[in-house]
DNA sequence: TAGGCCATCTGGTCCT
DNA sequence: AGGACCAGATGGCCTA
């Protein structure tokens, strides 16, 4: 995957110009949507290449924020967890925690911040899951890491853009890339052999 | 066993 | 003031 890196700085201006045509409201809406993303609802709707069929390998990714709240560890962050709390009935448990919390306002704030941070990271991870469903993967390929997902997405978008600009048939364009290697307009060599190989799996209609 | 990847906690900074 | 965002630290899990 490392070989898919290319000189992004050189193309940054052009790339931003390209994406600048996108409605910013659409981008923000997409971000909002990603926050509420539920993998289960999009199974089979996204990547035709994903070997996982868009099913998250992380069951947690399908939790709602409400679920997360109810599952969050209630004891104060940084404090020793009283194991007896875990065995107590919910009512007594929460009552004692409230009493404890009232004595440590800072820790209560810190705990609330931890929960918010976990929610935030969960939403980011959901967005990564969705992105994984949109990038080409081999059927036998293991789940992409976050950094690999980002790099592959960047290369994939760039290649799709090149195909659009060229006006060529996508399949023949990819075949050409496979044969001759891939160069962008600034002649910087993009070693995207992995990407073009992935794209060769696509059944172009 | 080392290295990669990840989740979580935490404190700092910025923004509303 | 409180929330969002960020980056560093830490520890767990997995794989070569």
UniProtKB/TrEMBL annotation:
It comes from the Eukaryota. Keywords: DNA-binding, Nucleus, Transcription, Transcription regulation. The keyword Ribonucleoprotein does not apply. The keyword Membrane does not apply. GO terms for biological process: developmental process. Residues 108-160 form the BHLH domain. Signal peptide: none annotated. One of its GO terms (molecular function) is DNA-binding transcription factor activity, RNA polymerase II-specific. Gene3D superfamilies: Helix-loop-helix DNA-binding domain (4.10.280.10). This is BHLH domain-containing protein.
